[in-house]
Amino acid sequence: MSMPDEDDWLIEDEEPGTTLLGPSSLPWVILIVDDEPDVHSVTRLAMQGVSYKRRNLQFISAYSGAEGFEVLSSRDDVALVLLDVVMETDDAGLRLVRRIREELQNALVRIVLRTGQPGQAPEQQVITDYDINDYKAKTELTSQKLFTTVIASLRAYESLLSIERSRQGLGKILDASANLYQKHSLREFASGVLRQISGILGFGADGVLCVSVPPPIPGKHQPLSVVAATEAFETLLDTPDPHIREDAEALIQTALQQQAHQFAEDWVALYIATENQREYVICFAPPWPLAMLEQQLLRVFCDRISAAFDNLYLYEQLKRAQTATVVALADLAEFRDTDTGEHVLRVQGMTDAIVAELQALGYYSEQLTLAFVEQVGMASILHDVGKVGTPDHILFKPGKHDEQERGVMQQHASTGGSILGKASDMVDGVSYLSLACEIAGNHHEHWDGSGYPQHLQGEAIPLSARIAAVSDVFDALMHKRPYKEPWTLEAAVQYIQARAGSQFDPKVVEAFLQVIHDRFPDLDLSVNC
What we know:
Elements: E1 24-33, H1 37-46, E2 51-52, E3 55-62, H2 65-74, E4 78-84, H3 92-103, E5 110-115, H4 123-129, E6 134-137, H5 143-180, H6 186-201, E7 208-213, E8 225-229, H7 246-258, E9 262-263, E10 268-273, E11 279-284, H8 292-333, H9 340-361, H10 370-380, H11 392-395, H12 403-424, H13 432-442, H14 463-478, H15 489-498, H16 506-519
Parallel strand pairs: 1-3, 1-4, 4-5, 5-6
Antiparallel strand pairs: 2-3, 7-8, 7-11, 9-10, 10-11
Helix pairs in contact: 2-3, 5-6, 5-8, 6-8, 8-9, 9-10, 9-14, 9-16, 10-13, 12-13, 13-14, 14-15
Pfam families: DUF3369 (PF11849), HD_5 (PF13487), Response_reg (PF00072)
GO molecular function: phosphoric diester hydrolase activity
Keywords: Phosphoprotein
């Protein structure tokens, strides 16, 4: 520090036990507003080499009240304004004070009035009537007094900024707790956690990493698994044995061993334990050492999201159980067909892909709710559950069905709809069972009304069934059946394409064709047979 020792108490308030590496790249911004260029030069010279809490001072200049207002309107990182009173008018500085507080609603920036004409604006009146933090005659601002004034103002600004960040951070914690519960994918959830941490602290960290440790297995080493990452760490995603920076991994291991947050010189490691015996550590390098208040905010946030990690795990386990149950039901319905399990999973995959493309195209946005999008693929697995009641000699007949056999075969749609309808009545709202009921009962309806069992037409057919119909027919054409050999990709696509507007919803077919184009870009889709 370049100033005399008598005022060192002004800056000796670092967090105990914290060792800093040097001045941060983010300086304290100080705006000099004065119409005398020499004042700008003298101020810079007097404060040369000064830093506060390892952050340098950056001076920017304005030479009138109007110019000062433009600067403060365009940036929100000014900590202190050293403001002259008399500039373009006798009260230009006082006018600027009011504009800062009232027009810009900036209550954080500290304002120190400096005047060469004390009688022009009496000190007591100015202090009483204007929201300023100090009032000095230029003649009394020696280098030492200027140093004292600047450091005291920066400390006051820092305290107010911490309070404001605390208020905003707590609000973001509450918002995050609600928003994160809506994310059902572990990676999506963890990525949301990383973004919220950057938001709470008010900076974008250069890379944030979330790793998990599965429940311990006796005698077996359990490596860290990267579940989410940003910026510099993104290359570690989907890596079986990720090579994390040595200093970062050391802090992560310390957090795991001590089961506690770690705040070190270069890195922060936040420890999150869950009831399902999984442990998570969020690691990042902040652009400046975190103050105690910021550390406390992170502790509160981690406490709030620990339960969310547990709930997410339980949700995903439930979802897996539901999927397994649905696949088992589909297999039970057609256990005699060795391809059934693969067929229904392929239908599920294509259904999900078509739904995603419909969203991208902007079609049926009101119907493509979050519940619909998340569950319609799983629901499509049960599209043929009604075949459980179809006799073998009809179900596996190698040739065409006669009229009576066709009637029996077609009963599987209404049978499936009835079975799933009873189940869906036990669940409130939209569920995979209610969507499965729609699909099973209506996936043989045609857009032009020529289908079965109710001869529904157009959008009277549930959207879920219109999507599953395309997925089901396409997969059936592409694979061997007792009554047919597999078709070529070109022939199957052309069949679907040719029946847009008659058998199939044209918008669903458009989305299907885009899926095919994305998967097979060399396939010619221009022919419409």
